[in-house]
Amino acid sequence: MNKTEKKLFRQYMAIVLSIVLIVCVVLSVVASLMLKANSRNRLETTVDEVIVSFLEAQEDDRAAKNLISDLVKILSEVGRTEIIMFDTYGNIKIASEDYDNFITPKDVRSSMDKIIAGEKVYFETKSDFLYENIAIGKPIVYNKIIIGGVLCVISGEFISDIMMEILNYAALFGLVLFVVCIFIARALAKRQSRPVNMLKDAISLVSAGNYEKFVPLQLKGDLEDVSADFNKMAETIMHQEQTNKEFIGNISHEIRTPLTIITGFLQGIADGTVPEEKKNEYMGVVIDETKRLTRLVNELLEIARLESSANPVKLQNFDVNSLIKQVIIKFEKNIENKNLNVNFSFEENTCIVSADKDGIERVLTNLTDNAVKFADVGGYIKISTVTSGGKVQVAVENSGEGISAEELNNIWNRFHKTDKSRSADKLGVGLGLYIVKNIINQHGEHITVQSEPGQYTRFVFTLSRERSLKNGNKD
Question: CA neighbours within 13 Å on the CB side: how many for 89?
């Protein structure tokens, strides 16, 4: 048995042993109570039979005495029941030889007095065995006149012997039940551990880097849910592994390209193969590629920071309209170079939201940067805020070529660039929108994109309205 099977087996055996012990104890207690009640009923029946036999033969005193003597002898030998028969004067007429071993003279005398007075007596006397001696006495009534009495005592030894036989059978039953349960527990442990072992094997393979091991879903109960969750986890890890490989490949490509250009151009300048009149042009390319490489490193660091669990969203209340105007100022020169018309459409002059101000500034910066870069010359940029319920919708729109329907689903991916020729986005590395999506998701908000090729592109994201912040700042 493996470790899991042994553990389950021990658990099942502990349960089985507890049940067997409880059953045996309950059976013993019930048997004891029933035995004691049965002994009392049996003793009372004996008393009644002695009285009936005596009354039937009482006209012949000698025959009656012989009959009772024989009955006393039989009961004493077979049933270990001692009998005392006495008259109304308290004189013992017939008695078992060993009755005084089970009842004291004091108890006999006290019982006689009560029985002669017409009472029925029942009591228990001390015994050296598991059960006490039981005594029952009744008066003998003939023609409504008490003519004597009978006192019977059943030995505690006799009751104890019967109980020991019952306990022996109970122990034998418990032993057989225990042995049978061992085999049942072993079979159950093996059966129950099989799916657990399958999960362990799959976990071992996944931990070793094999993400293609899936657990069969024909398992029942909670294990079915566990196996389904495990398969989802393995599939997610496998997908993440593939994504990471692609990510590393993209990083390698993005870093290798500018480094190759920079190295080649600088080498050409250094060895004199570049004409003097083109040195400035080549140095400009080197500077652009250096800027692109720097931007790539910075955005990778930003992604690492955003995806870190140690980077919680720091909520604060601030005016998003004011933040939008501050961001636009950063792009004033580029806006003028392309002769763009900038429109602000604010439903309210002041729109207080609750968010991470630095994060939302990064979102607005990236979206505005894209809007300026991809807007057509002489076109427009429109930024609006609209309040709806407890949310604020912020929209950044630009005129221009737009994004095709095929590209819309991929724009949030890392290193995805709609401008394949890099005619408009010379320094972009395809991480801006991925960072935007990540920041909005961290806020628990939503961002969508709409585009009409040849006309416009519009990004819309939501923010929560101003709320009470215990530990936040309020601008």
Answer: 2
